[in-house]
Amino acid sequence: MEADDDEYVRPQVSISYLQDLLISEYKLKIINYAELNGHEDRNYHIFCEETESTEHKSVFSQDQCESVCTRNSCSAIQTGVCSKYEYVVKVMDLVHSENFSSRSERIQMQMKVQDHLLDCGFVCPKVVPSSSGSVVQRFVTSEENVHYLTYMTKYIHGSTLFDIAPLSTETLYEVGSLLAQLHCSLKDAVIPSLELKSASVWALENAFKIKDFVSKAELDAGEQSLVSAVLDHFAQNVLAQMTELPHGVIHGDFHDENILILGRRENNRITENLVSNSDQVVHIRSKYTVIDFADISYSPLVFDLAISASYFMMSHAQPDFIEIVGHFLCGYFMVRRPTPKEVRSLFASICAAFCREVVLAKHSYLEQSRSNSYLITAVDAGLRQLKEIWRIGQGDVMTVWSGIWERYGLTLENWCEEIVI
């Protein structure tokens, strides 16, 4: 969720709208489509054929299309009609038409981040310009006069980490390394940081705003008291010293449904797209891709780490959820070593990230008339885990993680500021 959260409405999109958009702006005709998960926006994986010649095509082989269609139960494969052109279309409701300029500028900034990462050897979505060359489209539905903002990226074949859960400790370690590599690479990106500061309630630096939603999230008195205590602790021990934490461009939504293992799923196994290279950095960047950069901001790097750690705990939902995320954190720290202040901020930041998901996702779910089940998948597990990790306390949790990190040869005594890759 981006800025202007209080006014945001989830788009109500019809297939006729998508068809009109693709024909008018991209000269493409939809053969079939499947809606992808999303919190507030609408995301569509579309299969197309061209209506006239254009240079902005993303061509895939027929067997790749068949694999994706089969995985998404696409009826086109059964009829023998399957397009070679695959994209992802994101649709956002502007609510007020004057929001177009600011939202468009933010999306353009997201594209700069993705282009920078592509130049650094990462695999991430590449924006597809319209036939007129524009990146972001403003589209007004004829029947309801509703303003939508849309853009399109090339579809990347792969399976989300959510699809292959439970995740191994090796995978969690690699994904932690991937996030650290992303942070180190973005340190050199020429992107105006002030334009990336987020006003969103989902941004951890704005966690104090979460209290405004607690009473609307159907939490009992004890749960509301817990959330309030966690947020007060976070404000006093982290936000009060936030300027002393290392900052950079962060993803903001780095979790198991926004990370793909590249390759195709066959017989419930992943055929990975890997290069023959012993270099661990190249190996990881060629194995995984990160999608959905809608929540990027210039923020403390530890906030990205905390948000991700909380998501991996919630998706694991097993008694060893604290131990398992220690491998993710270690993968990160072996590439980018934290400062002492970041280490001290980690526990409180993870607890605040739990509150963020439990309260805001539950509120959004209720606001959407309980129709978007994707929002609620991790809430119950997150609430249970927040209670548990808060009961155990920072000292004992850090002791568990330190024991895991020592297995990799990483101890608190030998940490330094940063390793640049």
Topology (SSEs and partners):
Layout: H1 15-26, E1 28-36, E2 42-50, H2 62-71, H3 76-79, E3 85-93, H4 100-119, E4 137-140, E5 147-154, E6 158-160, H5 169-186, H6 211-214, H7 221-237, E7 247-250, E8 259-266, E9 269-272, H8 280-287, E10 288-290, E11 297-300, H9 301-316, H10 321-333, H11 340-367, H12 379-392, H13 394-407
Antiparallel strand pairs: 1-2, 2-3, 3-5, 4-5, 6-8, 7-11, 8-9, 8-10
Helix pairs in contact: 5-10, 7-11, 9-10, 9-11, 9-12, 10-13, 11-12
What are the defining features of this structure?
421 residues; four-stranded antiparallel sheet; five-stranded antiparallel sheet; globular; 11 strands; 13 helices; alpha+beta
Structure description:
The protein has helices at residues 15-26, 62-71, 76-79, 100-119, 169-186, 211-214, 221-237, 280-287, 301-316, 321-333, 340-367, 379-392, 394-407, and strands at 28-36, 42-50, 85-93, 137-140, 147-154, 158-160, 247-250, 259-266, 269-272, 288-290, 297-300. With 421 residues, it is an alpha+beta fold. The chain has a five-stranded antiparallel sheet with strand order 1-2-3-5-4, with helices on both faces. Strand 8 and strand 9 form a beta hairpin. It is globular, with a radius of gyration of 21 Å. The model is unreliable at 1-7, 53-83, 265-278 and 416-421 (pLDDT under 50).
